[in-house]
Design brief:
heterodimer, A: about 575 residues, alpha+beta, seven-stranded antiparallel beta sheet, five-stranded antiparallel beta sheet, 22 strands, B: about 700 residues, nine-stranded mixed beta sheet, six-stranded mixed beta sheet, 39 strands, about 30% helix, globular
């Protein structure tokens, strides 16, 4: 059956809009600041064969893994799901991402048959396990990371199963909030179900299904056309995780990309074996990285659905960092390894299409989790943005999340009203953006003081030893740093992955990495360097040494600048 | 001598002046081209025209909707933003630049964040600190402040914003800083965050005060220019400005809070719908305005426009939704509006994957749609409507504008048909269908997304193009009645005449209902009422015309966003239970579930202060016969209807000749000077005593 282009456009818009509407429902009725304020959740609609039809622009690491999650999850209930059922799970080896991400899937029934699915994934700020926030940097097995939920019918006949709910709530630190968030996930699916049903009723099953097929073919055509534009060849690259948690060892991600006609193959065979610590990335996370980068370098306006991936082959041997075997710990895979995977991929694409990529961004999410039991049990989780990589023609953005995440910060006023914390600084870091013709974005410095007697801090971060790289002569961004400043003035440097106790009056200092620069900094317009100096984002020293721009009393000394730029070594004298 | 009330609405293309005769209700209209570079010029030229036949002393009242604030934020030429400074708590000067740390576009490696509206070099930090309970942790360092004042003076800053952490809980430090700065910088406008928004969330509050600071010099110049030039014309009537909240405020009040007038124009359309609904005894109205470049949807529930408490301005929109993080948040009440790029001039095109797309580009007024013959080669929605027989094939604007159907056909043929192999009719119908589906979405956004069932609403369709598309939209949303007002093109301007004075006041409460001291809450509301009364007295409102509406923002303990529910006046302990019930009910309405076992938290006490304005009279006539007179039909032409999937011979009526009481069965077309109404086959229309076309689905 052929669907006319108009109906097609209408159905395409409707599916996309349904996923957006689901996201709004989820966000608005959720309890946790992590979902309400930071929007750490994603929604999608899939067809009866569990192929992705549409998704809203939420969190790339969730979205790229959704298809796999639904396909694997459904295998557990092959043919036994009833009308009114919804299935919940968080097992990373099924859902494709770490335990805090709870996936809820609802089949949509029409005349006794499943015509489609809606699904959403939300990051719960605690799912039990050894540390508040469920991101233990020293985990050696999955069981330490929290409650593992295999696919279960959380919702039967439209209502929540009390036994399952109470089992879950007994295993988490903030049950009331978890309950609110689970209800919100259900509300989002309920809304999605009724909207999808309306759409099918309006256009009929045959037409809607045919439109779905055509939409997938449409996206496939467009992605293929974009890949055709890339020069055939094999392109390799490598990047490193500096510290995989347990023994401070580094591990590499090595990928070779083979472009051939309109197809593309990603081979991760030479990548490191799985590691003892929690930096392993489940396959879903790895695929999410590939899909994300592919979308970025082809055309982000192409509607994302199953068709976008038909020309993509990804080879990741089992037992490696990017496709570990159960029960390897994985909590950091979503948040850290996923970012390094993107860095490695972008580095390879820099060889294929340098005009379409950026230098490395901060490459970490800087997961900070603080929790305690006084005055009542609390868990505070946040991720802190940093510098974005420089791009040809554009500086990197300052103080943003890069690539695989796009969560918002939680307002300081909301945090101070909720947790025993007082923030003392939230600023961009001077000289953290990698020098380049197009400067890397600046990292952030955030400081917070503990007002309660005791708390447990855990940090899961990267790029504290190996900085974000620059491209084409651009220099690296600054490294990330973490400290505790004791009330007596003593400064303790922390590792990028640690669990640490804090006592009243301690100040946690978080300094996030800057982005790498793009292009030779000596070619940066001196006026731009001057502007950064006046704004306090670049120091006069860096202006002179990195950019070859001499600044005296907030003005450019053009003669000295010319000398410096002809012979940069002069700046040393 | 007559007495007139004037509504002046500046639109993208035209500035409309509507004068209502207080005694007879007769409306006079004047349309002049808008003057974007200096908006006041268009207004003054409209007034000059009006005064050709009227004495200045006959003008009693002026209500004005202006795009000055929006244009300034969007960086309109000639309206360069002034140099502003921000004073904030030590350690936090980058809150404004970091924002919510989000990238506006997920998959775009070349995306940008909006540029901070105050340069980093002009963001000053001052040592001071309050905690969230409003207790002082560190007093204001006065030495810092003196240094900052000197620096601001030296830098030649035009306007100053003050935004300190936790000032929502205690504005003491902001007040202190402002007082000292006012002495040090006597000629510089200064505004502090608690004055424009006293809610928590520092970025949004600081962003709001910064936008206010930037607009103060611009709006003040604008209003002073207008008042001066009107005085020269001899006009001395009181001057009011439409705010984004759908109420008006005196020019003086706007000077200190220009941030409240950003959506001045679009709000007027929704207010007009609310008033019109009231006139017709319709409480629930979906307001739909479609002009040359955009379509806007709003919603009126129980006679009141729906309000949202925050909006992002100057950003990008994607399918009616603002791309979060692409603009500047402003946290003051806005009439809830959704917008999409669909107007008569919106261009249809074929994308790289051979998909038919409509918008966001527009051919504007020049060159305009291809059928205008002014050099436009791109097919637009107007061209599609012309091909489908919905618009007059020879001329528009009552004969003033010639149109060329063959040019419309050529544009659609070359740019659409040949590329994807569609016949002309199919392609034209496709363009209209796709535009309709986008417009259906914005109507859903203001209704379904907010928990309202559109089937319980009447659609009021206006703007030049609204009445062409209203039947298709109503069918899409399951709406069964539509009203097309007498002058669809002037509806917004006329709406100004119906607006009341309206101010929004707020205090943070933030307490579980179990811990609420109802006497303290009552005291808070009374303080707000005193504050409100003072403003209205300044605006010369008599005590008997003052109304106060109390509300709470509430949430379940642990949630991070609030819902607004009514609060009793006076508020006593006995009312608490009712308040809690209302919250559960509202939560169920909006999110589909309630959690009665959870504790409810009251976050803010809100007071809406209203100064009632006498409403204009509306002209009406007794009902005549049901059958329209023969001469009302000017022609019969073939018109394509998608529900029949064929061409139907359709009578064309002249709106000016229709009489109250006349009934028309669809399919039919009604043409008038600035609009065309298309009545679909399944619909039947009746002209009511005011001259509105009221349609019902058969």
């Amino acid at each position: 059956m052929k669907v006319d282009p108009i109906t097609l456009e209408v159905i395409k818009g409707a599916f996309r809009y349904i996923t957006e509407e689901m996201g709004i429902a989820l966000r608005n009725s959720a309890y946790s600041p992590n979902i309400r304020e930071r929007m750490d959740h994603s929604c999608a609609v899939l067809d009866s064969g569990a192929r992705l039809i549409a998704q809203a622009e939420h969190i790339p690491v969730h979205l790229g893994s959704m298809r796999l999650a639904v396909q694997q999850g459904l295998q557990y209930y092959e043919g036994t799901l009833q009308e009114g059922d919804q299935m919940l799970f968080n097992d990373p080896y099924i859902s494709g991402t770490h335990l805090p991400d709870m996936t809820l899937i609802a089949p949509i029934w029409y005349d006794g048959e499943v015509i489609a699915y809606v699904a959403n994934k939300a990051h719960h700020s605690d799912v039990g396990g050894k540390v508040p926030g469920s991101l233990p940097a020293d985990a050696t097995e999955l069981f330490q990371e929290g409650l593992i939920i295999p696919p279960v019918k959380l919702v039967t006949d439209g209502g929540m199963d009390r036994d399952i709910v109470s089992l879950i709530l007994s295993n988490v630190r903030t049950p009331q909030v978890r309950m609110g968030d689970l209800r919100a996930q259900m509300a989002a699916n309920n809304l999605g179900m009724s909207r999808v049903l309306e759409l099918y009723r309006e256009h009929g099953i045959e037409t809607t299904d045919a439109a779905v097929e055509e939409l997938m073919r449409y996206s496939e055509r467009r992605v293929r056309a974009e890949i055709e534009k890339l020069a055939d060849g094999v392109y390799e690259s490598e990047d490193w995780l500096e510290d995989t948690g347990m023994k401070g060892r580094a591990a590499n991600i090595k990928v070779s990309i083979n472009v051939k006609g309109s197809s593309i193959r990603f081979d991760y065979s030479p990548t490191a074996l799985q590691v003892e610590g929690p930096l392993n990335a489940p396959l879903g996370v790895t695929l999410a990285g590939v899909y994300y980068v592919l979308t970025c370098v082809t055309d982000p306006t192409i509607p994302i659905n199953d068709g976008c991936y038909r020309m993509v082959e990804v080879c990741v041997p089992e037992g490696t960092l990017l496709n570990p075997k159960r029960p390897a710990p994985v909590c950091g895979g979503n948040v850290e390894t996923s970012q390094r995977n993107v860095d490695a991929l972008l580095k390879a694409f820099a060889k294929i299409c340098p005009e379409k990529v950026c230098a490395a961004g901060q490459g970490t999410m800087n997961n900070v989790c603080i929790g305690g039991i006084e005055p009542k049990p609390w868990t505070f989780y946040e991720t802190v943005g940093g510098g974005y990589g420089g791009r040809p023609g554009l500086d990197g953005m300052d103080g943003v999340h890069v690539h695989m995440t796009n969560t918002m910060n939680t307002p300081i006023e909301a945090l101070e009203a909720t947790y025993p914390l007082r923030f003392t600084r939230y600023q961009l870091r001077e000289d953290s953006g990698g020098p380049g013709e197009w400067r890397g974005g600046c990292g952030i410095e955030r400081r917070l003081m503990l007002l309660a007697e005791n708390a447990t801090l855990s940090i899961l971060s990267e790029r504290n030893r190996i900085p974000p790289w620059g491209l084409y002569g651009g220099k690296s961004g600054a490294l990330g740093e973490f400290y505790i400043l004791k009330p007596n003035g003593k400064l303790i440097k922390l590792k990028s992955k640690c669990t640490q106790s804090m006592t009243k009056g301690d100040i946690l200092i978080i300094k996030t990495p800057g982005g790498g620069g793009y292009g030779d900094p000596l070619r940066r317009k001196p006026e731009l360097v001057l502007g950064d100096v006046i704004d306090g984002l670049v120091s006069e020293e860096s202006a002179q040494e990195d950019y070859g721009v001499a600044i005296v009393d907030s003005e450019i000394d053009w003669k000295a600048t010319e000398r410096l730029r002809i012979n940069p070594l002069l700046s040393d004298t | 001598m007559s007495t007139f009330r004037i509504g002046v609405d500046i639109g993208g293309t035209f500035t409309d002046l509507v004068a209502s005769d207080k005694e007879t209700g007769v409306l006079t209209n004047i349309k002049v081209p808008s003057t974007p570079v200096r908006l006041a010029d268009g207004v003054i030229s409209a007034f000059s025209r009006f005064l050709e036949s009227t004495e200045p002393a006959e003008i009693e009242l002026i209500m004005h909707a202006s795009t000055i604030a929006t244009n300034a934020i969007l960086g309109q030429t000639g309206l360069e933003l002034p140099k502003a400074a921000l004073i904030t708590t030590k350690g936090f000067r980058d809150v404004l630049a970091i924002g919510r740390q989000r990238r506006p576009e997920l998959y775009n490696l070349f995306g940008r964040k909006p540029r901070a509206l105050v340069a980093r070099r002009h963001r000053y930090e001052i040592e001071e600190r309050m905690n969230p309970k409003g207790e002082e942790v560190h007093p204001v360092n006065l030495q810092d402040l003196q240094k900052i004042a000197a620096d601001i003076k030296r830098e030649g800053v035009d306007s100053v914003a003050i935004g300190l952490l936790n000032s929502y809980a205690n504005p003491g430090h902001e007040k202190q800083v402002k007082e000292i700065l006012e002495k040090a910088l006597p000629n510089t406008p200064i505004t502090s965050s608690h004055e424009v928004s006293s809610e928590y969330r520092e970025y949004e509050r600081i962003s709001t005060v910064v936008v206010n600071a930037l607009l103060m010099p611009i709006v003040s110049q604008y209003i002073h220019d207008l008042v001066d030039e009107m005085t020269e014309l001899g006009v001395s009537a009181p001057f009011y400005v439409m705010k984004s909240n759908g109420g008006i405020a005196s020019g003086d009040v706007i000077l200190s809070s220009p941030v409240t007038m950003i959506e001045s124009g679009p709000a007027a359309g929704v207010v007009a719908s609310a008033f019109h609904g009231e006139l017709l005894g319709i409480e629930n109205v979906l307001s739909f305005d479609m002009g040359g470049t955009t379509a806007k949807a709003g919603l009126v529930k129980s006679g009141k426009p729906e309000i949202v408490t925050e909006c992002e301005v100057g950003g990008k929109t994607h399918r009616g939704r603002i791309t979060k993080g692409s603009g500047y948040p402003v946290r003051v009440p806005f009439v809830d509006l959704a917008e999409c790029s669909a107007g008569g001039g919106t261009i249809a095109w074929i994308d790289e994957g051979e998909g038919l797309r409509v918008g966001p580009l527009s051919a504007g007024a020049s060159p305009g749609p291809a059928c205008y013959g002014l050099g436009g080669e791109e097919p637009t929605i107007t061209d599609a409507n012309l091909i489908l027989g919905r618009l007059n094939p020879a001329h528009l604007l009552g004969g003033k504008m010639r149109v060329h159907k063959e040019l419309a056909g050529k544009a659609i043929g070359e740019k659409i048909c040949t590329k994807i192999g569609l016949a002309l009719t199919e392609a034209a119908m496709g363009i209209v269908k796709i535009a309709n589906s986008e417009m259906g979405k914005i109507l859903r956004m203001v209704s379904v997304e907010r928990g309202h069932d559109p089937r319980q609403f009447t659609l009021i369709a206006f703007g030049g193009a609204g009445p062409i598309h209203c039947c298709a939209l109503a069918e899409d949303l399951g709406i069964s009645s539509i009203v097309v007002p007498v002058n669809p093109g002037l509806f917004s301007a006329a709406g100004l005449l119906a607006a009341d004075l309206k101010h929004d006041l707020l205090r943070a409460v933030v307490k579980d209902v179990t811990e609420i001291d109802s006497q303290a809450v009552e005291k808070t509301f009374q303080d707000l009422e005193t504050e409100g009364r003072t403003i209205l007295e300044k605006e010369k409102v008599e005590a008997e015309n003052m109304t106060f509406i109390r509300e709470f923002d509430a949430r379940y303990n642990g949630q991070a966003y609030e819902l607004t529910i009514p609060a009793a006046r006076p508020f006593a302990a006995t009312e608490l239970e009712k308040t809690i019930d209302e919250f559960h009910e509202r939560h169920r309405e909006v999110y589909g579930y309630a959690a009665p076992e959870e504790t409810v938290e009251l976050v803010n006490a809100r007071l809406t202060v209203i100064g009632l304005v006498t409403k204009p009279k509306w002209q009406e006539a007794p009902l005549a016969s049901e059958k329209p007179a023969e001469e009302t039909i000017s022609a019969r032409r073939d018109c394509f209807f998608e529900d029949h999937d064929q061409w139907l011979k359709t009578p064309v009526y002249v709106r000016e000749n229709l009489r109250p009481g006349n009934r028309i069965r669809g399919p039919a077309i009604v043409e008038q000077y600035d609009a065309t109404t298309v009545i679909y086959p399944a619909w039947e229309a009746a002209v009511d005593r005011f001259g509105n076309i009221c349609m019902e689905r058969r």
